[in-house]
Amino acid sequence: MCDVDNYDCNEGIILPLINEYTWSKGARTCIYLVGLLWSFLGVAIVADIFMEAIETITSRKKKVKIADPSAEDGYTEVEVVVWNGTVANLTLMALGSSAPEILLAIIEIVGNNFKAGDLGPSTIVGSAAFNLMCITGICIMSVPSPDVRKLRHIKVFAVTAVFSTFAYIWLIIILVVISPDYIDLWEAFCTLLFFPAMVVIAYIADKEYFGKKSTQVADSHLDLEALVKAEDLPEGDIKADKRLILEFLRKLKHEKGYSEKELAQLASYVMEKDKSHSHGWYRRKAIRDFSGTTKLEPSLDPHTKQLLDTLLLTEDVAGSQESFYSKQEYVNKSIIEFAAPGAAVLERDGQVKLTIMRHGKLDRRVVFHVETVDGTAESGSDYIPVKKSMVFEPQQTTQDLEIEIVDDNIWEPDEVFFVRISVEPDQKCVIGKRGICQVVILNDDEPGTIEFEKPSYLFKESCGVARIPVQRVNGADGVLKAKWKTKDISAVAGRDYDESAGEIEFKHGEVEKHIEITINDDMEFEKDENFELILESVSAGAKLGRLQSTVVTIVNDDEFNGFVSRVTNLTNANLDALRTQRNTWAKQFEQAMNVNGGDLESATAFDYVMHFLTFGWKLIFALIPPPTIFNGWLCFVVAISMIGVLTAIIGDLASIFGCLIDLKPAVTAITFVALGTSLPDTFASRTAALQERTADNSIGNVTGSNGVNVFLGLGVSWTVASLYWSAKGKTFEVPAGDLGFSVTIFTVCALVTITLLMLRRYIGLFGGELGGPKGPKIASGVFLVFVWIFYVLMSSFQAYGHIQGF
């Protein structure tokens, strides 16, 4: 043990490199703390590369034949991934996220002459506690209310939860019950064998070889269920095609004229964001987001972000009314609003009827107020003002509000006024998005003014018929006729469009008509062409407005297809740039030396700061072979070797730092070291909880990782140590003391956590493992954080002798 009074604390495997015992204690403490934190950054950087190698390995595909009655030979070939998703998550993916803890346990044993240490095993237990309790609690609270995330692969979760709990119960049994304070060779070997047993049983559960199979939606053309599950199909690299880009441009209303680059940026951003990812991807994303490295999602420049805000019609991008009302202030409350944001009424109609609707909570009586507000229309002379209270009875969803319009037979321009809804604070209801309604009074005392709505219109060559709207404003009284004609500009009548002239008729009260012109598709490559549409004259009493002509542009489909092709290619180029496993050595160094991997336009001040702090690590780890070599295996081996070296340094840093501040190794392990190695998983799980539709990638992996930590971390290290001591005719000694007590407390807390998750899944109040109503959600998350604090405090009290252990 270290001598705290002399504070030399020189007991590491590698550190200190020089004799430091003459330095001041404060200086050494500061240096080792900074070194520990900086090393955690290094582990995160190299773990990103390690996960990249694992994703390359597990994404390997093969071709299989599947029954297809529509094919000539009755079969069709599809590509499926070689690795089963569950097996990949419990083996290589779990190893990727748990490598520091596992290697720390192994290195500590070997570096300590095969004697048991406190740091490695305690780090495994402490990391498991933080992962299961804190990460789960954070994920529960992170999902916006009232949204819910449920585990999809509940059978796999059940298997890993049982095995992870059993893993720690098994530790108690072999440390305290069977052979107290000693680990026999068979005990260590069984600990290691439980790992493949867990993988096999989880695979069986994933394939649903026992129990009732979940219902799957059959493919209408291919009998995919005959040979493979949907989860076995490769996640793959999503690609944009012309059909998808055309649909995307349609939603964008492409006539706004954004550049091809901006459209491609936005398309790639939306496609990548909507894609389902593995937990490993989210872990790498979290690491890259806080380290100033190349991002795994496309970055948007400010202009393109503004374009994103215009996509109000795309539910997936800008949200819908339903997502608006999922905000917490609208949960469990009555929502009152107008059925439409605006209404128009002819002056001669005498009144306008507005519908007020209520949704949300309907089981209470609600009193609300409506009031008219002048715009260009004046109360009294143009309409009769309203200011009154109205009532929604329980279960009532609509109310009609009638406002009288004054018909004065005097010509006036079209005028507007507004109607506003308000509620008292004690009514337990809120005003929705349409709390104000605009009413337009259309003057009908004059025939009106005829004009086009816009100065130009755009139509594709293949549209067949162009329909151009003509408006009647400032009056709608009587029947009105207007004559129109076309005039060539660059388009030629008879070839590009049918030369036309004619007359449109507005009946009494009608305010809009359409002129239809046939567009000819000559199937030849041409530039965009246009012609002019002119309003020549109108009936007596009426007049022509400001826009008496409009330009109609015919967009050539060949050029439009070229535009779509260019946007498609740019989109795919953006998506390809995110596939970092295709990097070369030169590309790795280029990305390591530049903020955001060279994407300076979207780099933030935080990116620059973190790039400065991690620059050294990035350069060192750029030496690791890219995963394109030998299908990722060479990268895998070199990366895990570097993690091993760095883990050994972290072990020394943590031990010496704990010694300097008089913190026992077991307590250092369950606090500083456990938190440092678990932070990337924390950010990854939270991001997955927000972006994924299920809870599998946020909390579904936690139990698997906890089991893998014990079965591999302690299984391998204890098996090696047991073999060593067996060869010497002795038994491997592992004092139960601090470790046995910590494991016992953790096991109790783990059972409480898993029980809470199952209650949240099957009790209607919660709706699922993550999210749900705000109150129960916050209560669940805070409770789990306090469970973790309880574990840390109890383990620490026992380590310092305040509580009697084993």
Automatic annotation (TrEMBL):
Transmembrane segments: 30-51, 124-144, 156-179, 185-205, 630-654, 708-727, 739-759, 780-800
SMART domains, per the entry: Calx_beta
Residues forming coiled coils: none
Family matches, as Gene3D superfamilies: 2.60.40.2030, NCX, central ion-binding region
Catalytic activity: Ca(2+)(in) + 3 Na(+)(out) = Ca(2+)(out) + 3 Na(+)(in)
Entry keywords, A to Z: Antiport, Calcium, Calcium transport, Calmodulin-binding, Cell membrane, Glycoprotein, Ion transport, Membrane, Metal-binding, Repeat, Signal, Sodium, Sodium transport, Transmembrane, Transmembrane helix, Transport
Matches recorded under InterPro entries: CaCA (IPR051171), CalX-like_sf (IPR038081), Calx_beta (IPR003644), Na_Ca_Ex (IPR004836), NaCa_Exmemb (IPR004837), NCX_ion-bd_dom_sf (IPR044880)
Protein name: Na+/Ca2+ exchanger 1
Every Calx-beta domain range: 320-422, 437-536
GO biological process, one term: cell communication
Pfam family, one: Na_Ca_ex
One cellular component (GO) term of this entry: postsynapse
Organism whose genome encodes this protein: Tridacna squamosa
GO terms for MF: calcium:sodium antiporter activity; calmodulin binding; metal ion binding
Membrane topology of the entry: Multi-pass membrane protein
Primary localisation category: membrane
Location relative to the cell: Cell membrane
Family per similarity comment: Belongs to the Ca(2+):cation antiporter (CaCA) (TC 2.A.19) family. SLC8 subfamily.
